[in-house]
Model the fold of this input.
Amino acid sequence: MNPLSAAATVAMIGATLSAPALAAPVVCNAVWTDAARGGRTVPVRIRMPQGHGPAPVILFSHGLGGGLDAGADWVTAWSEAGFMTVNIQHAGSDTAIWKGRMRPMQGLREAMNGAQLQARAGDVHFVLDRLEKGGREGACDLGRVDMGRVGMAGHSFGAQTTLAVSGARYGGEAIMRDPRIKAAIALSPQPAQGQDDRSAFGGITIPFFSITGTRDELPFLNKVTPQDRTRPFAAMPAGHKYLLVLDGANHMMLGGQSMRMPGTSPNTHIVDAVTRLTTDFWQTYLISGANRPDLIANDRHVLSTKDHFERRLGRSGARGSGTGVQVGGRRGRWWSARSRCQPIRWSTSSRPRRASS
Done:
C-alpha cells in the first residue's frame, strides 16, 4: 500500500467532515490533565442536555485513530434524549498516530496493544473521577451529573475499551473494571485475544448491548470477521444482554460519523435503528429503574427483515432464555428457548477464519 492510498484508508478510521454547531444541547470542549499519570492530557467533548436537573451521563470511546468527532450521530441523539454525553480522546491511539505520517498503517498497527488499552481504561476512570468533582466546564454545569447512572459506549477499539471497563477479564482478573458503570454499548466489538471468550467475557454482569453488521470487518488491519463480533455477546452470562446485527452495515458505518469516503457514512436505516434501540436501552437501564419497558416492543418497525436482533434476559445460559424476540419486523421469525433464530445473512466477502490472537 503506497502512502497516498494508505492515508485514504486511514481517513476511513479517524477523519470526519466538519459538522455545524448544535443549537441544543450545549457543547463544551476541554482538555483535562491527569496528574496521577504523569500529566497525561485527556481531551473531552461534553454535550449537556437542556434543563437544570440531574442527568445520567454516557461516556464514548473512539476507535483506533479516531478523536472527539467519533460517534457524533449516536451521542447527539442521546443528548437530545436527555443524557449528558462525554466523548473521550485517547492519546496514543487517536488521530496523531496516523496524521502526517508516510506510513499511517504502521502507526495504527503499533497502537493496537494491551498498553494502549490500559491507558484508555485509565482515561475512563480519570474522566469519571473528574465528573464526580462537579464544577463548571465553560457553559456546561458538571454539577448536574448523576454519578449513580453512568453508561459507557465505544466503537471498534472503543468497544474493546468498553468491554474492559465493564468487567472483561484478563488473566482471570477484571483489572480494568469500573463499578460506577451501570450499563454499556459496544459497536463493533471483537473477541478476546490469547484466551477463550467465556474466560474473557463471562464476568460481565451489567446490562450490555452489542451491535455489529454483516460487513463489519477491516481485512487490511486484522482478521476479525463479522461473525467474530457476535462472540462477546454469546460468551456473556444471561441477564439483560442484547445483540443487533444490521444487514449490510460495515465497520465505518457503525462509527456514527459523516465520512469523506463513499460507503462509510451510515445510511438512514442504520442511523434510525442504532439511535432508536440504543436510546431505548439507555432509557431502560439508566432511567426506568424497576419499571423497565420491553426494549424492542416499540422498535420493531425500524428493523428490516434481514436484520437480526437477539436478547437474553433470563438467568440461564441459554441464548434467548425466557424471551421471545421478533427479528426484522412483522415478517421476521421469533427467537425463544424453544425455537431457532433466522440465520444471519453474512456478507459473501466474509469468509470464516479464526480471529487473530
